[in-house]
């Protein structure tokens, strides 16, 4: 059926192109035979082979994944504790101040977080001798800090929505506070925990600014590695790496979208019942 | 009624006290939510706390459950003060207004939840869950999740979940609050039936007087944190202690009046709203100097007639101000010469009988023992 020309349809495609053409170009050039990024010289997968042989990049990938995993996990655990205090403990005096402060890193520029973290680590290193020098540990701590802010927002809003009488029912039926938390509260806020973890994981994987402040020798993360190698000229190897990252991120995004949709459907069906 | 049922009704009557609430207070900041309350709950009865929102009834229930800690006072169970025990250490279970069924657990797991914390064996738990499901005819739904059940089914599960541990006291928080009107009436009788079959003592909170009167053996009317009156539904309706109770339960016509004559077996009152004397077929034998009294009359005991009734007391003239035809009965709003509006119910026992019309002059009258007298 011939579609009538409409302005909104045109703008839709312009918008899509604006978002995706750059990535498409990158993906296409990752299969370029030539060493020169902008000159097409035929199809080849050789840059992928070279990428996997590049020890430095592969180490950086592995390191970044480790840091992202650890940061996301630590941030989510702390965010659950923080959310419980913010939402559940009404007689906690500094609640409003605490709620405001815990989300401050959301609006703070990365440069400031990175710099202040660096100064803190240096000062601590001089005063108490820990952390001795900067490396994976300091990147992990710094990433946990800012991921914590995002995770808390996600988890606490879910906790606020949850019907309090569910926890009361559990106590009433003889479970103590700890059991109530693990058997009732945790399963119900699980979708929020999963999304908070995924969000933190991607944020950590993506960060270059904060990491470059607090990282040290032998702890170069992938974004920093890419950033510094690009300064020497973009090789198609980076294109190949970027293509793989795009593929991985798309898979994770689609997967998590599907997962949260399924969980939310279930939960909203459950919420409709109560 | 079978002999079995009769025996149970008799069993209810014995006055053994299960729970005593003494001088219970609850402050929220400076606000007094429950004010120096004393209350005895008898073994085996269904007791309703009835009041408007903010009357303190829910706070009282939550203190019984252990979700609120009293500011002062005691809750005595078998001679032990349990006022400060946490909810998980009290032998009480509660059915929540929202039911609070765990959405991630099946019906079976929901019911077994409380039993697991009692250290029962797997077989015992299974048997108990089955017998509970049987009680509400829900055996087929054991593996369903709560969101796959209808409102009435969810309520049944919530009820047996709170009964599964054989609590000494069952607490019901607005038990029918989440149901629509038609289902409500049905479930009220079903819930009472189950509670009686199990024989558990029950305290319920509700703002719905019909629900309280249908379900409860005794009712406490609460207002501003205080219990105004405790009694059977008949006591509360027919002999309210004060104007607040009379007006809260059903509708009522209240006349401010003065005692003219007060004898042992009768009393005569005079009210500016009523043209004749008001004759009450019993005395209050008050030694108080204060002569002012409230005379209250339920609309269904206030009769309306187009002809002058043959009596010189308990009768007054009026004009029909408004008519509300409700099918089963009609409510007439009659304006007395003083300007006061009186409600009268007229049961529609005949189809299309001749009835008073708008603006018609009528007579309002009542029997000697129909009215209630109150000090305040």
Automatic annotation (TrEMBL), chain A:
The chain crosses the membrane at residues 12-31, 67-87, 107-128, 140-159, 180-199, 238-259. Its main location: membrane. It is found in: Cell membrane. Coiled coil: none annotated. InterPro entries: Bact_Polyamine_Transport, MetI-like, MetI-like_sf. PANTHER family: PUTRESCINE TRANSPORT SYSTEM PERMEASE PROTEIN POTI (PTHR43848). Belongs to the binding-protein-dependent transport system permease family. CysTW subfamily. This is ABC transporter permease subunit. It comes from Marinobacter suaedae.
Automatic annotation (TrEMBL), chain B:
Residues 19-249 form the ABC transporter domain. One of its GO terms (molecular function) is ATP binding. It catalyses: ATP + H2O + polyamine-[polyamine-binding protein]Side 1 = ADP + phosphate + polyamineSide 2 + [polyamine-binding protein]Side 1. Keywords: ATP-binding, Cell inner membrane, Cell membrane, Membrane, Nucleotide-binding, Translocase, Transport. Coiled coil: none annotated. It is an enzyme of class 7 (translocase). Its EC number is 7.6.2.11. Transmembrane segments: none annotated. InterPro entries: AAA+_ATPase, ABC_SmlMolc_Importer, ABC_transporter-like_ATP-bd, ABC_transporter-like_CS, Mo/tungstate-bd_C_term_dom, P-loop_NTPase, PotA-like, Transp-assoc_OB_typ2. Part of the ABC transporter complex PotABCD involved in spermidine/putrescine import. Responsible for energy coupling to the transport system. The complex is composed of two ATP-binding proteins (PotA), two transmembrane proteins (PotB and PotC) and a solute-binding protein (PotD). PANTHER family: PUTRESCINE TRANSPORT ATP-BINDING PROTEIN POTG (PTHR42781:SF5), SPERMIDINE/PUTRESCINE IMPORT ATP-BINDING PROTEIN POTA (PTHR42781). Belongs to the ABC transporter superfamily. Spermidine/putrescine importer (TC 3.A.1.11.1) family. This is Spermidine/putrescine import ATP-binding protein PotA. The lineage of its organism: Bacteria, Pseudomonadati, Pseudomonadota, Gammaproteobacteria, Pseudomonadales.
